[in-house]
Amino acid sequence: MQEPSIEEDRSEKETIISTKCRFLLWSCVIIPISIMISIVAVVIFIRYQSSFSSNNILCNPLKFSDYTSYPAGSDPWSINNGYLDGDSFLDIVVANTFDPTISIYYGFGNGTFQSQKLYNTTYHVFYVAVRDMNNDNKSDIILTYSTLNQIAILINMGNQNFNSPITYPVGNFPFWIDVSDFNKNNLLDVIVVNDRAASVTILYDYYNLSFSYSKTYPCGDDVTGVSVADFNNDLYPDFVTTDYSDNTISLYINPKNGIFNHKKKIYTSIGPWGIATADLNNDNFIDIVNTNFVSFTISVFLNDGHGNFNKWDTYYIGGTTMSVTLADLNNDTFIDIIAANFGDDFICIFLNKQNGIFEACQRFITEWNVNSDTTGDFNVSAVTTGDFNGDNKIDIALCTGQSTMNVLLNLC
Ligand SMILES: *[C@@H]1O[C@H](CO)[C@@H](O)[C@H](O)[C@H]1NC(C)=O
Ligand SMILES: *[C@@H]1O[C@H](CO)[C@@H](O)[C@H](O)[C@H]1NC(C)=O
Ligand SMILES: *[C@@H]1O[C@H](CO)[C@@H](O)[C@H](O)[C@H]1NC(C)=O
Ligand SMILES: *[C@@H]1O[C@H](CO)[C@@H](O)[C@H](O)[C@H]1NC(C)=O
Ligand SMILES: *[C@@H]1O[C@H](CO)[C@@H](O)[C@H](O)[C@H]1NC(C)=O
Ligand SMILES: *[C@@H]1O[C@H](CO)[C@@H](O)[C@H](O)[C@H]1NC(C)=O
Ligand SMILES: [Ca+2]
Ligand SMILES: [Ca+2]
Ligand SMILES: [Ca+2]
User: Fold this and answer.
1) Do 121 and 165 form a contact (C-beta atoms < 8 A)?
2) Domain count along the chain
3) Buried residues in 51-73 as b, exposed as e (16+ CB within 10 A)
4) What is the pLDDT of residue 50?
Protein backbone atom coordinates (compact mmCIF):
# COMPACT_ATOMS: atom_id res chain seq x y z
CA MET A 1 0.00 0.00 0.00
CA GLN A 2 3.09 2.16 0.43
CA GLU A 3 3.98 2.11 -3.22
CA PRO A 4 0.73 3.47 -4.55
CA SER A 5 0.77 6.00 -1.79
CA ILE A 6 4.27 7.08 -2.85
CA GLU A 7 3.12 6.89 -6.40
CA GLU A 8 0.10 8.94 -5.49
CA ASP A 9 2.30 11.31 -3.52
CA ARG A 10 4.69 11.60 -6.44
CA SER A 11 1.93 12.08 -8.90
CA GLU A 12 0.43 14.64 -6.55
CA LYS A 13 3.83 16.33 -6.39
CA GLU A 14 4.10 16.12 -10.15
CA THR A 15 0.69 17.60 -10.42
CA ILE A 16 1.75 20.38 -8.08
CA ILE A 17 5.00 20.85 -10.00
CA SER A 18 3.26 20.79 -13.32
CA THR A 19 0.70 23.27 -11.99
CA LYS A 20 3.59 25.43 -10.83
CA CYS A 21 5.22 25.01 -14.21
CA ARG A 22 2.06 25.91 -15.99
CA PHE A 23 1.63 28.86 -13.66
CA LEU A 24 5.23 29.93 -14.34
CA LEU A 25 4.78 29.37 -18.05
CA TRP A 26 1.66 31.51 -18.10
CA SER A 27 2.86 34.16 -15.74
CA CYS A 28 6.43 34.45 -16.99
CA VAL A 29 6.12 33.68 -20.68
CA ILE A 30 2.71 33.63 -22.31
CA ILE A 31 1.05 36.54 -20.49
CA PRO A 32 4.01 38.91 -20.91
CA ILE A 33 4.39 37.89 -24.54
CA SER A 34 0.66 38.46 -25.14
CA ILE A 35 0.90 41.81 -23.41
CA MET A 36 3.88 42.75 -25.55
CA ILE A 37 2.12 41.63 -28.72
CA SER A 38 -0.98 43.63 -27.74
CA ILE A 39 1.12 46.72 -27.07
CA VAL A 40 2.86 46.36 -30.41
CA ALA A 41 -0.52 45.87 -32.11
CA VAL A 42 -1.98 48.96 -30.42
CA VAL A 43 1.07 51.02 -31.36
CA ILE A 44 0.86 49.86 -34.97
CA PHE A 45 -2.88 50.56 -35.01
CA ILE A 46 -2.45 54.09 -33.61
CA ARG A 47 0.46 54.75 -35.93
CA TYR A 48 -1.48 53.77 -39.03
CA GLN A 49 -4.93 54.77 -37.88
CA SER A 50 -4.83 57.80 -40.15
CA SER A 51 -4.08 55.65 -43.16
CA PHE A 52 -6.79 53.13 -42.20
CA SER A 53 -9.37 55.86 -41.78
CA SER A 54 -8.20 57.68 -44.89
CA ASN A 55 -9.59 54.75 -46.87
CA ASN A 56 -13.02 56.14 -46.01
CA ILE A 57 -12.23 59.59 -47.39
CA LEU A 58 -13.52 60.13 -50.88
CA CYS A 59 -11.05 60.92 -53.66
CA ASN A 60 -8.03 60.34 -51.48
CA PRO A 61 -5.52 61.14 -52.87
CA LEU A 62 -7.08 64.02 -54.76
CA LYS A 63 -6.55 64.40 -58.48
CA PHE A 64 -6.19 67.63 -60.43
CA SER A 65 -5.40 68.42 -64.05
CA ASP A 66 -1.97 69.80 -64.78
CA TYR A 67 -2.17 73.53 -64.34
CA THR A 68 -3.03 75.77 -67.28
CA SER A 69 -1.04 78.97 -67.13
CA TYR A 70 -2.19 82.45 -68.19
CA PRO A 71 0.05 85.53 -68.20
CA ALA A 72 -0.76 88.14 -65.55
CA GLY A 73 0.73 91.54 -64.73
CA SER A 74 3.75 92.06 -62.53
CA ASP A 75 3.73 90.24 -59.18
CA PRO A 76 0.10 89.37 -58.78
CA TRP A 77 -0.63 89.29 -55.08
CA SER A 78 -4.34 88.62 -54.69
CA ILE A 79 -6.94 86.60 -56.62
CA ASN A 80 -10.68 86.23 -56.43
CA ASN A 81 -13.55 85.09 -58.64
CA GLY A 82 -17.19 85.77 -59.37
CA TYR A 83 -19.67 86.44 -62.16
CA LEU A 84 -18.28 89.64 -63.64
CA ASP A 85 -19.99 89.69 -67.03
CA GLY A 86 -23.54 88.74 -67.97
CA ASP A 87 -23.05 84.98 -68.45
CA SER A 88 -23.25 82.24 -65.85
CA PHE A 89 -19.56 81.31 -66.11
CA LEU A 90 -17.15 82.24 -63.35
CA ASP A 91 -14.55 84.90 -64.08
CA ILE A 92 -11.26 85.46 -62.26
CA VAL A 93 -9.71 88.74 -61.16
CA VAL A 94 -6.10 89.27 -60.11
CA ALA A 95 -4.39 92.30 -58.54
CA ASN A 96 -0.97 93.03 -60.10
CA THR A 97 0.96 94.63 -57.27
CA PHE A 98 3.83 96.09 -59.30
CA ASP A 99 1.65 97.27 -62.20
CA PRO A 100 -1.10 99.90 -62.03
CA THR A 101 -3.63 97.32 -63.24
CA ILE A 102 -5.87 94.44 -62.36
CA SER A 103 -6.38 91.52 -64.75
CA ILE A 104 -9.75 89.96 -65.44
CA TYR A 105 -9.97 86.54 -67.06
CA TYR A 106 -13.46 86.02 -68.43
CA GLY A 107 -14.46 82.37 -68.25
CA PHE A 108 -15.77 80.21 -71.10
CA GLY A 109 -17.46 77.90 -68.60
CA ASN A 110 -15.42 74.89 -69.71
CA GLY A 111 -12.44 75.47 -67.43
CA THR A 112 -10.63 77.77 -69.86
CA PHE A 113 -10.50 81.55 -69.79
CA GLN A 114 -9.97 84.43 -72.19
CA SER A 115 -6.54 85.98 -71.90
CA GLN A 116 -6.32 88.77 -69.35
CA LYS A 117 -8.18 92.00 -69.90
CA LEU A 118 -6.41 94.82 -68.05
CA TYR A 119 -8.16 97.58 -66.13
CA ASN A 120 -6.36 100.69 -64.88
CA THR A 121 -6.09 101.04 -61.14
CA THR A 122 -2.91 102.07 -59.30
CA TYR A 123 0.36 100.52 -58.17
CA HIS A 124 0.46 98.42 -54.99
CA VAL A 125 -2.98 96.91 -54.94
CA PHE A 126 -2.58 94.10 -52.40
CA TYR A 127 -6.11 92.78 -52.20
CA VAL A 128 -9.08 92.26 -54.47
CA ALA A 129 -12.61 91.34 -53.42
CA VAL A 130 -15.69 90.73 -55.56
CA ARG A 131 -19.16 91.70 -54.41
CA ASP A 132 -22.29 93.34 -55.75
CA MET A 133 -21.96 96.56 -53.77
CA ASN A 134 -24.82 98.58 -55.30
CA ASN A 135 -27.38 95.80 -55.47
CA ASP A 136 -27.92 95.83 -59.24
CA ASN A 137 -27.14 92.10 -59.60
CA LYS A 138 -23.76 92.83 -61.17
CA SER A 139 -20.65 91.96 -59.18
CA ASP A 140 -18.37 94.91 -58.46
CA ILE A 141 -14.68 94.97 -57.54
CA ILE A 142 -13.20 96.30 -54.30
CA LEU A 143 -9.44 96.93 -54.02
CA THR A 144 -6.92 98.11 -51.44
CA TYR A 145 -4.82 101.03 -52.68
CA SER A 146 -2.30 100.12 -50.04
CA THR A 147 0.31 102.88 -50.36
CA LEU A 148 -2.41 105.53 -50.83
CA ASN A 149 -4.27 104.51 -47.64
CA GLN A 150 -7.48 104.08 -49.62
CA ILE A 151 -9.81 101.44 -50.87
CA ALA A 152 -11.28 101.69 -54.36
CA ILE A 153 -14.55 100.40 -55.78
CA LEU A 154 -15.07 99.65 -59.48
CA ILE A 155 -18.76 99.54 -60.28
CA ASN A 156 -19.73 97.01 -62.92
CA MET A 157 -21.38 98.76 -65.90
CA GLY A 158 -22.05 95.50 -67.79
CA ASN A 159 -20.47 94.23 -71.03
CA GLN A 160 -17.08 93.85 -69.31
CA ASN A 161 -16.92 97.57 -68.52
CA PHE A 162 -16.30 99.09 -65.12
CA ASN A 163 -16.50 102.70 -64.05
CA SER A 164 -13.21 104.33 -63.07
CA PRO A 165 -12.27 103.48 -59.52
CA ILE A 166 -13.86 105.59 -56.79
CA THR A 167 -11.63 105.83 -53.72
CA TYR A 168 -12.39 106.05 -49.99
CA PRO A 169 -9.88 106.90 -47.25
CA VAL A 170 -9.01 104.24 -44.65
CA GLY A 171 -6.04 103.75 -42.27
CA ASN A 172 -2.32 103.23 -42.85
CA PHE A 173 -1.56 100.54 -45.47
CA PRO A 174 -4.87 98.76 -46.07
CA PHE A 175 -4.02 95.16 -46.84
CA TRP A 176 -7.08 92.91 -46.79
CA ILE A 177 -10.83 93.38 -47.22
CA ASP A 178 -14.04 91.61 -46.35
CA VAL A 179 -17.62 92.70 -46.92
CA SER A 180 -20.62 92.20 -44.66
CA ASP A 181 -23.56 94.02 -43.10
CA PHE A 182 -22.53 94.43 -39.46
CA ASN A 183 -25.46 96.63 -38.41
CA LYS A 184 -27.99 94.61 -40.42
CA ASN A 185 -29.66 97.50 -42.24
CA ASN A 186 -29.30 95.88 -45.68
CA LEU A 187 -26.57 98.32 -46.71
CA LEU A 188 -23.19 96.73 -47.20
CA ASP A 189 -20.25 97.53 -44.92
CA VAL A 190 -16.59 97.03 -45.89
CA ILE A 191 -14.00 96.01 -43.30
CA VAL A 192 -10.35 96.79 -44.09
CA VAL A 193 -7.23 95.92 -42.09
CA ASN A 194 -4.79 98.82 -41.69
CA ASP A 195 -1.54 96.88 -41.61
CA ARG A 196 0.67 99.70 -40.30
CA ALA A 197 -1.85 101.13 -37.86
CA ALA A 198 -2.65 97.95 -35.92
CA SER A 199 -6.34 98.51 -36.59
CA VAL A 200 -9.29 97.77 -38.82
CA THR A 201 -11.60 100.34 -40.36
CA ILE A 202 -15.23 99.53 -41.02
CA LEU A 203 -16.89 101.69 -43.66
CA TYR A 204 -20.62 101.47 -42.95
CA ASP A 205 -23.66 101.57 -45.18
CA TYR A 206 -22.65 101.83 -48.83
CA TYR A 207 -25.38 103.63 -50.75
CA ASN A 208 -25.39 105.84 -53.86
CA LEU A 209 -21.63 105.28 -54.29
CA SER A 210 -20.68 106.46 -50.80
CA PHE A 211 -20.40 105.18 -47.26
CA SER A 212 -22.30 106.96 -44.54
CA TYR A 213 -19.69 106.75 -41.74
CA SER A 214 -16.66 104.77 -40.62
CA LYS A 215 -15.14 103.53 -37.38
CA THR A 216 -11.72 102.19 -36.47
CA TYR A 217 -11.03 99.39 -34.01
CA PRO A 218 -7.65 98.34 -32.55
CA CYS A 219 -6.05 94.99 -33.48
CA GLY A 220 -2.55 93.58 -33.04
CA ASP A 221 0.65 94.79 -34.69
CA ASP A 222 0.98 94.40 -38.47
CA VAL A 223 -2.57 93.16 -38.77
CA THR A 224 -2.64 91.30 -42.06
CA GLY A 225 -5.90 89.46 -42.75
CA VAL A 226 -9.55 89.61 -41.74
CA SER A 227 -12.48 87.25 -42.03
CA VAL A 228 -16.12 87.96 -41.18
CA ALA A 229 -18.39 85.23 -39.80
CA ASP A 230 -20.99 84.71 -37.10
CA PHE A 231 -18.98 82.88 -34.44
CA ASN A 232 -21.61 82.78 -31.67
CA ASN A 233 -24.66 81.97 -33.83
CA ASP A 234 -26.66 85.06 -32.92
CA LEU A 235 -27.04 85.96 -36.62
CA TYR A 236 -24.89 89.09 -36.22
CA PRO A 237 -21.61 89.07 -38.17
CA ASP A 238 -18.44 89.05 -36.06
CA PHE A 239 -14.87 89.27 -37.33
CA VAL A 240 -11.38 87.97 -36.68
CA THR A 241 -7.97 89.32 -37.77
CA THR A 242 -4.44 87.92 -38.00
CA ASP A 243 -1.89 90.07 -36.15
CA TYR A 244 1.38 89.18 -37.84
CA SER A 245 3.89 90.61 -35.36
CA ASP A 246 1.95 89.70 -32.22
CA ASN A 247 1.40 86.03 -33.10
CA THR A 248 -2.25 86.52 -32.24
CA ILE A 249 -5.63 86.65 -33.82
CA SER A 250 -8.05 89.33 -32.62
CA LEU A 251 -11.67 88.30 -32.26
CA TYR A 252 -14.48 90.85 -32.12
CA ILE A 253 -18.01 89.66 -31.31
CA ASN A 254 -20.83 91.88 -32.55
CA PRO A 255 -22.88 93.31 -29.65
CA LYS A 256 -25.84 93.31 -32.07
CA ASN A 257 -25.50 96.89 -33.22
CA GLY A 258 -22.51 96.65 -35.56
CA ILE A 259 -20.33 98.79 -33.27
CA PHE A 260 -17.54 96.72 -31.74
CA ASN A 261 -16.04 97.33 -28.33
CA HIS A 262 -14.45 94.21 -26.94
CA LYS A 263 -11.39 92.63 -28.52
CA LYS A 264 -10.41 89.12 -27.53
CA LYS A 265 -6.78 88.20 -28.12
CA ILE A 266 -6.04 84.57 -29.00
CA TYR A 267 -2.52 83.21 -29.43
CA THR A 268 -1.65 81.30 -32.59
CA SER A 269 1.65 80.24 -34.15
CA ILE A 270 4.44 82.49 -35.48
CA GLY A 271 3.72 85.11 -38.12
CA PRO A 272 -0.04 84.65 -38.69
CA TRP A 273 -0.98 86.01 -42.12
CA GLY A 274 -3.90 84.59 -44.11
CA ILE A 275 -7.22 83.75 -42.50
CA ALA A 276 -10.43 81.99 -43.50
CA THR A 277 -13.52 80.82 -41.63
CA ALA A 278 -16.05 78.02 -42.13
CA ASP A 279 -17.69 75.18 -40.19
CA LEU A 280 -15.03 72.48 -40.44
CA ASN A 281 -16.61 69.72 -38.34
CA ASN A 282 -20.27 70.23 -39.34
CA ASP A 283 -21.42 71.13 -35.82
CA ASN A 284 -22.94 74.39 -37.10
CA PHE A 285 -20.30 76.51 -35.39
CA ILE A 286 -17.85 78.51 -37.47
CA ASP A 287 -14.19 77.54 -37.09
CA ILE A 288 -11.02 79.47 -37.98
CA VAL A 289 -7.97 78.62 -40.09
CA ASN A 290 -4.91 80.85 -40.32
CA THR A 291 -1.59 80.51 -42.12
CA ASN A 292 1.64 81.16 -40.23
CA PHE A 293 4.22 82.76 -42.51
CA VAL A 294 7.17 82.26 -40.20
CA SER A 295 6.50 78.78 -38.82
CA PHE A 296 5.50 77.30 -42.23
CA THR A 297 2.25 75.99 -40.79
CA ILE A 298 -1.48 76.50 -40.62
CA SER A 299 -3.43 76.62 -37.38
CA VAL A 300 -6.96 75.23 -37.13
CA PHE A 301 -9.15 76.55 -34.29
CA LEU A 302 -12.36 74.61 -33.66
CA ASN A 303 -15.19 76.64 -32.11
CA ASP A 304 -16.23 75.15 -28.75
CA GLY A 305 -19.87 76.08 -29.40
CA HIS A 306 -19.76 79.34 -27.47
CA GLY A 307 -17.52 81.32 -29.80
CA ASN A 308 -14.41 80.33 -27.84
CA PHE A 309 -11.23 79.14 -29.54
CA ASN A 310 -9.08 77.74 -26.77
CA LYS A 311 -6.77 75.40 -28.61
CA TRP A 312 -5.51 74.81 -32.10
CA ASP A 313 -4.18 72.01 -34.28
CA THR A 314 -1.08 72.62 -36.37
CA TYR A 315 -0.42 71.31 -39.87
CA TYR A 316 2.90 71.63 -41.63
CA ILE A 317 3.23 73.20 -45.07
CA GLY A 318 6.97 73.34 -45.62
CA GLY A 319 7.38 76.92 -46.78
CA THR A 320 6.30 80.47 -46.10
CA THR A 321 2.57 80.69 -46.53
CA MET A 322 0.12 83.57 -46.88
CA SER A 323 -3.09 82.70 -48.66
CA VAL A 324 -5.59 80.10 -47.50
CA THR A 325 -9.05 79.23 -48.73
CA LEU A 326 -11.67 76.69 -47.68
CA ALA A 327 -13.84 74.49 -49.91
CA ASP A 328 -15.21 70.95 -50.09
CA LEU A 329 -12.99 69.42 -52.77
CA ASN A 330 -14.19 65.82 -52.55
CA ASN A 331 -17.91 66.50 -52.19
CA ASP A 332 -18.29 64.78 -48.79
CA THR A 333 -19.88 67.91 -47.21
CA PHE A 334 -16.76 68.45 -45.09
CA ILE A 335 -14.73 71.55 -45.88
CA ASP A 336 -11.10 71.05 -46.89
CA ILE A 337 -8.20 73.50 -46.65
CA ILE A 338 -6.18 74.86 -49.58
CA ALA A 339 -3.06 76.83 -48.66
CA ALA A 340 -0.59 78.50 -51.02
CA ASN A 341 3.11 78.00 -50.46
CA PHE A 342 4.77 81.34 -51.11
CA GLY A 343 8.25 79.94 -50.61
CA ASP A 344 7.82 77.14 -53.16
CA ASP A 345 6.07 75.91 -56.28
CA PHE A 346 3.17 74.00 -54.81
CA ILE A 347 -0.09 74.37 -52.97
CA CYS A 348 -0.99 72.20 -49.99
CA ILE A 349 -4.40 70.61 -49.73
CA PHE A 350 -5.48 69.22 -46.37
CA LEU A 351 -8.40 66.81 -46.68
CA ASN A 352 -10.92 66.82 -43.85
CA LYS A 353 -11.17 63.47 -42.01
CA GLN A 354 -14.83 64.34 -41.53
CA ASN A 355 -14.33 65.65 -38.00
CA GLY A 356 -12.38 68.88 -38.37
CA ILE A 357 -9.09 66.97 -38.17
CA PHE A 358 -7.10 66.96 -41.39
CA GLU A 359 -4.89 64.64 -43.40
CA ALA A 360 -1.32 65.71 -44.05
CA CYS A 361 -0.58 68.11 -46.91
CA GLN A 362 -1.13 66.80 -50.44
CA ARG A 363 1.08 68.80 -52.76
CA PHE A 364 0.11 69.99 -56.20
CA ILE A 365 2.71 71.62 -58.39
CA THR A 366 1.52 74.99 -59.58
CA GLU A 367 4.39 76.48 -61.51
CA TRP A 368 7.67 75.19 -62.81
CA ASN A 369 10.51 77.57 -62.28
CA VAL A 370 10.50 78.83 -65.86
CA ASN A 371 13.52 81.05 -65.39
CA SER A 372 15.33 78.02 -63.95
CA ASP A 373 16.86 80.12 -61.19
CA THR A 374 16.90 78.88 -57.63
CA THR A 375 15.63 81.97 -55.88
CA GLY A 376 12.12 80.69 -55.39
CA ASP A 377 10.52 83.21 -57.70
CA PHE A 378 7.68 80.84 -58.52
CA ASN A 379 6.04 81.84 -55.22
CA VAL A 380 2.34 81.08 -55.02
CA SER A 381 0.97 84.31 -53.58
CA ALA A 382 -2.78 83.66 -53.48
CA VAL A 383 -5.37 81.00 -54.16
CA THR A 384 -9.12 80.94 -54.80
CA THR A 385 -11.69 78.23 -55.57
CA GLY A 386 -14.77 77.84 -57.74
CA ASP A 387 -16.37 75.44 -60.21
CA PHE A 388 -14.79 76.75 -63.40
CA ASN A 389 -15.99 74.04 -65.79
CA GLY A 390 -19.51 73.40 -64.51
CA ASP A 391 -19.02 69.78 -63.38
CA ASN A 392 -19.98 70.52 -59.75
CA LYS A 393 -16.42 69.88 -58.59
CA ILE A 394 -14.57 72.76 -56.99
CA ASP A 395 -11.49 73.83 -58.95
CA ILE A 396 -8.52 75.98 -57.94
CA ALA A 397 -7.04 79.15 -59.40
CA LEU A 398 -3.94 80.85 -58.09
CA CYS A 399 -1.43 83.55 -58.92
CA THR A 400 2.35 83.29 -58.74
CA GLY A 401 5.55 85.30 -58.55
CA GLN A 402 6.20 84.24 -62.17
CA SER A 403 3.47 86.74 -63.12
CA THR A 404 1.02 84.02 -64.01
CA MET A 405 -2.50 82.98 -63.14
CA ASN A 406 -2.88 79.19 -63.11
CA VAL A 407 -5.94 76.97 -63.09
CA LEU A 408 -6.09 73.40 -61.77
CA LEU A 409 -9.27 71.48 -62.58
CA ASN A 410 -10.59 69.02 -60.03
CA LEU A 411 -10.66 65.44 -61.39
CA CYS A 412 -12.04 63.87 -58.20
C1 LIG B 1 -13.82 76.16 -74.26
O2 LIG B 1 -14.70 77.04 -74.89
C3 LIG B 1 -14.07 77.93 -75.81
C4 LIG B 1 -15.11 78.93 -76.29
O5 LIG B 1 -16.29 78.29 -76.62
C6 LIG B 1 -13.44 77.14 -76.93
O7 LIG B 1 -12.78 78.01 -77.83
C8 LIG B 1 -12.43 76.15 -76.35
O9 LIG B 1 -11.92 75.32 -77.36
C10 LIG B 1 -13.08 75.29 -75.28
N11 LIG B 1 -12.05 74.53 -74.63
C12 LIG B 1 -12.24 73.29 -74.19
C13 LIG B 1 -11.08 72.64 -73.54
O14 LIG B 1 -13.30 72.72 -74.32
C1 LIG C 1 -4.88 103.02 -68.82
O2 LIG C 1 -3.68 103.69 -68.56
C3 LIG C 1 -2.83 103.76 -69.70
C4 LIG C 1 -1.51 104.36 -69.28
O5 LIG C 1 -1.69 105.34 -68.31
C6 LIG C 1 -3.53 104.56 -70.79
O7 LIG C 1 -2.72 104.60 -71.95
C8 LIG C 1 -4.85 103.91 -71.13
O9 LIG C 1 -5.57 104.68 -72.05
C10 LIG C 1 -5.69 103.72 -69.89
N11 LIG C 1 -6.86 102.93 -70.21
C12 LIG C 1 -8.09 103.28 -69.85
C13 LIG C 1 -9.19 102.36 -70.27
O14 LIG C 1 -8.32 104.27 -69.19
C1 LIG D 1 -28.68 88.11 -61.78
O2 LIG D 1 -27.72 87.84 -62.79
C3 LIG D 1 -27.59 86.49 -63.14
C4 LIG D 1 -26.54 86.36 -64.22
O5 LIG D 1 -25.32 86.95 -63.83
C6 LIG D 1 -28.93 85.95 -63.63
O7 LIG D 1 -28.78 84.56 -63.88
C8 LIG D 1 -30.00 86.18 -62.58
O9 LIG D 1 -31.25 85.79 -63.09
C10 LIG D 1 -30.05 87.65 -62.21
N11 LIG D 1 -30.99 87.85 -61.12
C12 LIG D 1 -31.85 88.85 -61.11
C13 LIG D 1 -32.75 88.94 -59.92
O14 LIG D 1 -31.93 89.67 -62.02
C1 LIG E 1 -26.51 110.48 -54.75
O2 LIG E 1 -25.32 111.23 -54.66
C3 LIG E 1 -25.29 112.34 -55.51
C4 LIG E 1 -23.91 112.99 -55.47
O5 LIG E 1 -23.38 112.92 -54.18
C6 LIG E 1 -26.41 113.33 -55.10
O7 LIG E 1 -26.42 114.44 -55.96
C8 LIG E 1 -27.74 112.61 -55.18
O9 LIG E 1 -28.77 113.44 -54.67
C10 LIG E 1 -27.72 111.33 -54.36
N11 LIG E 1 -28.94 110.57 -54.58
C12 LIG E 1 -29.61 110.00 -53.60
C13 LIG E 1 -30.84 109.24 -54.00
O14 LIG E 1 -29.29 110.10 -52.42
C1 LIG F 1 9.72 84.26 -53.14
O2 LIG F 1 9.77 83.96 -51.76
C3 LIG F 1 11.03 84.15 -51.17
C4 LIG F 1 10.89 83.78 -49.71
O5 LIG F 1 10.15 82.65 -49.55
C6 LIG F 1 11.42 85.60 -51.30
O7 LIG F 1 12.73 85.75 -50.78
C8 LIG F 1 11.41 86.00 -52.76
O9 LIG F 1 11.64 87.37 -52.86
C10 LIG F 1 10.05 85.71 -53.35
N11 LIG F 1 10.04 86.02 -54.76
C12 LIG F 1 9.08 86.77 -55.30
C13 LIG F 1 9.18 87.01 -56.78
O14 LIG F 1 8.17 87.24 -54.67
C1 LIG G 1 -21.97 65.67 -54.71
O2 LIG G 1 -22.82 65.12 -53.74
C3 LIG G 1 -24.21 65.34 -54.02
C4 LIG G 1 -25.04 64.86 -52.84
O5 LIG G 1 -24.35 63.93 -52.08
C6 LIG G 1 -24.58 64.65 -55.34
O7 LIG G 1 -25.96 64.91 -55.62
C8 LIG G 1 -23.71 65.22 -56.44
O9 LIG G 1 -23.97 64.54 -57.66
C10 LIG G 1 -22.23 65.07 -56.09
N11 LIG G 1 -21.45 65.77 -57.09
C12 LIG G 1 -20.42 65.21 -57.72
C13 LIG G 1 -19.73 66.05 -58.73
O14 LIG G 1 -20.06 64.07 -57.47
CA1 LIG H 1 -23.13 95.90 -58.93
CA1 LIG I 1 -24.76 98.00 -43.05
CA1 LIG J 1 -22.37 86.87 -33.90
Assistant:
1) yes
2) 1
3) eeeeeebeebebebeebebbebb
4) 47
Structural domain boundaries, residue 354: 173-365
Sheet arrangement for strand 312-316: 272-278, 287-292, 297-301, 312-316
Kindly state whether residue 126 falls inside one of the protein's structural domains: no
Residue 76, preceding bond cis, omega within 30 degrees? no
All residue ranges of the chain with pLDDT < 70 are: 1-33, 35, 37, 39-55, 367-378
The CATH number assigned to the domain holding 186 equals: 2.130.10.10
Is 83 a pocket residue for ligand 3 (Cβ < 6 Å)?
Answer: yes
Return the best residue to mutate from 85, 137, 139, 156 for the ligand 3 pocket (most ligand atoms within 8 A of CB).
137
Q: Which ligand is nearest to the CA of 58?
A: 6
Q: pLDDT tens digits for 12-67?
A: 555 554 555 565 556 666 666 676 767 556 554 544 444 445 557 899 999 999 99
Tens digits of per-residue pLDDT, 254-303? 999 999 999 999 999 999 999 999 999 999 999 999 999 999 999 999 99
Closest CA to 335 of 259, 408, 276: 276
Q: How far apart are CA 393 and CA 214, in angstroms?
A: 39
